[in-house]
């Protein structure tokens, strides 16, 4: 078992969105993006890897199912780590020639439509870097798996610099502040019931790059300023500024999707009701207390300070009644000031049908990937997956 390496890696949620590539193969973005890394105690990808001389081919299992190793993105990550190891002479050539086994799982449902590829590729690359004894930055290699994965290589708030180099040598992630900088920050992920077939991020951004004038404007004139402003808001722990930029950037990303031709939309009626609810709540508070952001799907991600969690959860339960006894999972929260009747009256949204929100994950900002030393691997001593569905 000593040769099996197991890593865990976090999910990240962008507050300034990556949308559009300048190079499809190298996964180089048109604009900088910025995200918060979420706590791996609540949501994580876990990956075990090992290399042995008797393995005939490279093999991979994802969430208990055997998958093909033929994906270009997967192969690119493996080749790049091996190249780095060869350049750094960290392992010998025999070891580099051995085939590998990879087994990976998320502890949150992939079907929930939560960004799982970012955590998954960050985890794979972290485990491979340990296997091949690569010590330098591997965010640019995680980027080759899925663009947003490069941001999951660091904890806290993380910026992915788009860079200008055609080969992408300057396109990697850097940490803005670590997870201890803003300890009061909390995140609620609202998993919305939805069965709509959706356009993948990869396909959606391709259409936007080819057709959206708004995307060009965003890349040139909007994002650079927003990146500077949100970094200042994070340094100063200015929540209302942070929240306003976050919501505006989510809205602009979804406007770009509608400005694409043909247009596509990730937001459902429930997503729009959540948007309305948050604006209504902030207005009733007389201050921006909660921010929403949406990725390529209908689930909302809400940012707020710890003091707001109890009242926001009460409000969600009131507007989105649920039959789920475990409606809120993740971190426990301390009941504080209850939802006041004044606030409820000021919010002009009626309670909705039951179970439009399936459940809520309560989490916070966390650290980057880590290597597990507890021996709880996903591969057994023969190098076979332990859980197969
Ligand atoms: C909307 O990283 O999934 O979540 O690079 O093609 O794999 P590929 O796309 P992906 O796109 C994420 C888009 C987003 C915004 C973000 O995370 O910044």
From TrEMBL:
Function: Catalyzes the ATP dependent decarboxylation of (R)-5-diphosphomevalonate to form isopentenyl diphosphate (IPP). Functions in the mevalonate (MVA) pathway leading to isopentenyl diphosphate (IPP), a key precursor for the biosynthesis of isoprenoids and sterol synthesis.
GO cellular component terms, A-Z: cytosol
Identification of the protein by name: Diphosphomevalonate decarboxylase
GO molecular function, a single term: ATP binding
Domain of life, source organism: Eukaryota
One GO process term, biological-process aspect: cholesterol biosynthetic process
Catalysed conversion reaction: (R)-5-diphosphomevalonate + ATP = isopentenyl diphosphate + ADP + phosphate + CO2
Pathway recorded for this protein: Steroid biosynthesis; cholesterol biosynthesis
EC number(s) from the headed UniProt entry: 4.1.1.33
Domain Mvd1 C-terminal stretches: 187-372
Domain Diphosphomevalonate decarboxylase-like N-terminal: 9-173
InterPro entries per the UniProt record, alphabetical: GHMP_kinase_C_sf, Mev_decarb, Mev_diP_decarb, MVD-like_N, Mvd1_C, Ribosomal_Su5_D2-typ_SF, Ribsml_uS5_D2-typ_fold_subgr
SUPFAM superfamilies: GHMP Kinase, C-terminal domain, Ribosomal protein S5 domain 2-like
Keywords of the record: ATP-binding, Cholesterol biosynthesis, Cholesterol metabolism, Lipid biosynthesis, Lipid metabolism, Lyase, Nucleotide-binding, Steroid biosynthesis, Steroid metabolism, Sterol biosynthesis, Sterol metabolism
Gene that encodes the chain: MVD
One Pfam family recorded for the sequence: MVD-like_N
Family according to the record: Belongs to the diphosphomevalonate decarboxylase family.
């Amino acid at each position: 078992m000593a040769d099996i390496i197991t890593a865990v890696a976090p999910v990240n949620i962008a507050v300034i969105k990556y949308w559009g590539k300048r190079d499809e193969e190298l996964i180089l973005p048109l604009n900088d993006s910025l995200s918060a890394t979420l706590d791996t105690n609540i949501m994580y990808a876990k990956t075990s890897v090992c290399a042995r001389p008797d393995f005939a081919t490279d093999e991979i299992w994802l969430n208990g199912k055997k998958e093909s190793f033929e994906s270009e993105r997967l192969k690119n990550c493996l080749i790049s780590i091996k190249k780095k190891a060869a350049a750094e002479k960290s392992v010998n050539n025999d070891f580099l020639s051995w085939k590998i086994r990879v087994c990976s799982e998320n502890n949150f449902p992939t079907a929930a439509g939560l960004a799982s590829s970012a955590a998954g590729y960050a985890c794979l690359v972290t485990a491979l870097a340990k296997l091949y004894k690569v010590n330098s930055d591997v965010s640019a290699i995680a980027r080759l798996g899925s663009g947003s994965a490069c941001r999951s290589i660091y904890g806290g708030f993380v910026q992915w610099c788009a860079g200008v180099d055609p080969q992408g040598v300057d396109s990697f992630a850097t940490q803005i502040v670590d997870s201890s900088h803003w300890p009061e920050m909390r995140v609620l992920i609202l998993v919305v019931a939805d069965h709509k077939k959706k356009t993948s991020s990869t396909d959606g951004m391709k259409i936007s790059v080819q057709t959206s004038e708004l995307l060009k404007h965003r890349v040139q004139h909007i994002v650079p300023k927003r990146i500077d402003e949100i970094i200042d808001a994070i340094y100063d722990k200015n929540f209302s500024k942070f929240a306003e930029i976050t919501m505006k950037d989510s809205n602009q990303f979804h406007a770009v999707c509608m400005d694409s031709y043909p247009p596509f939309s990730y937001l459902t009626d429930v997503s729009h009701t959540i948007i309305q609810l948050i604006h209504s709540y902030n207005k009733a508070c007389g201050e921006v207390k909660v921010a929403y952001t949406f990725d390529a799907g209908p689930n909302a991600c809400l940012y707020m300070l710890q003091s707001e969690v109890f009242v926001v959860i009460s409000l969600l339960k009131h507007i989105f009644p649920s039959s789920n006894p475990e409606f809120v999972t993740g971190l426990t929260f301390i009941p504080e000031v209850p939802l006041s009747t004044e606030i409820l009256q000021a919010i002009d949204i009626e309670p909705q049908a039951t179970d439009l929100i399936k459940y809520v994950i309560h989490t916070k900002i966390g650290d980057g990937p880590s290597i597990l030393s507890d021996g709880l691997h996903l591969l057994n001593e023969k190098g076979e997956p332990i859980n197969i569905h």
